[in-house]
Design goal:
This protein is α/β, with parallel strands linked by helices and about 220 residues long. It has nine helices and eight strands. The strands form two sheets. It has a five-stranded parallel β-sheet with strand order 2-3-1-4-8. Strands 6-5-7 form a three-stranded antiparallel β-sheet. It binds BIS(adenosine)-5'-pentaphosphate and zinc ion. One of its GO terms (molecular function) is AMP kinase activity.
Length: about 220
């Protein structure tokens, strides 16, 4: 089963994708993670996108579609996939459909996670991530159990994202409303949309997503 997690920045897409990977054996394809990895490893593409990402604007369709196409050509393309943060424009949505069709695959469902804007800003400005394993935490809603030590891998190094500041968050929210929100109607019209209240506790949201997908 291939699914999309759709929602504004901070809605909890990454958090829920990781749970579905651990508990249900999905493979997560996050274009945000791929772009950050390209930036960290200093590739030409990584250098090109760094400023755009830090400002909170969308990277060009061609770059992200290329990243997803590469993944679908590789091993990842053979499993149940979660698209996290992709597609974000109608052009990306059309490209995904074509890429999956080339592999004889389909998209089963699109889970839209709804969270209001005040909560999104709180979530994003409180987020930190383990530098070693990528586990995502939050200062108040999901702190580490032992202060300063990752629950998953024991690392003591954490990072905060360059685009997790109030100014970039405003740009990211407006990019979502203008360029990505039209996908809600697009997938509704195809009968694939499942809407979940993303404001509840992490466990409750996970249960609602599983129920929506019939897992
Ligand atoms: P990307 O990395 O995709 O970021 P995003 O969409 O802005 O989403 P986030 O990662 O901020 O949020 P999330 O929904 O995953 O929330 P999380 O689970 O971490 O994209 C970054 C940039 O890359 C873009 O701005 C763009 O420049 C570029 N880009 C990426 N894909 C692109 C594409 N397809 N096209 C063009 N450009 C692209 O949760 C947030 C926080 O809340 C965490 O601290 C978490 O612990 C906490 N939390 C989660 N769930 C709950 C809950 N239920 N209750 C309380 N707290 C919670
Ligand atoms: Zn860790």
């Amino acid at each position: 089963m291939n699914i999309i997690l759709l929602g504004p920045p901070g809605a909890g897409k990454g958090t829920q994708a990781r749970r579905l990977v651990e508990e249900k054996g999905f493979v997560q394809l996050s274009t945000g993670d791929m772009l950050r990895a390209a930036k960290t490893s200093g590739t030409e593409m990584g250098k090109k996108v760094a400023d755009v990402m830090a400002r909170g604007e969308l990277v060009t369709d061609d770059i992200v579609i290329g990243l997803i196409a590469e993944q679908l050509d590789g091993e990842a393309g053979k499993q149940g996939l979660i698209f996290d943060g992709f597609p974000r424009t109608l052009k990306q949505a059309d490209a995904l459909e074509a890429l999956l069709a080339e592999k004889g695959q389909t998209l089963e469902a699109v889970v839209e996670m709804q969270v209001d804007e005040d909560a999104l800003v709180d979530r994003i400005t409180g987020r930190f991530t383990c530098a070693k394993c990528g586990e995502v935490y939050h200062d108040t809603t999901k702190p580490t159990q032992k202060p300063g030590v990752c629950d998953v891998c024991g690392s003591t190094e954490f990072v905060r994202r360059a685009d997790d500041n109030a100014e970039s968050v405003r740009v990211r929210l407006s990019a979502y409303n203008r360029q990505t929100a039209p996908l809600i109607g697009y997938y509704y019209a195809k009968g694939k949309l499942r809407t979940v209240d993303g404001l509840g506790e992490i466990d409750q949201v996970a249960k609602d997503i599983e129920a929506g997908l019939g897992l």
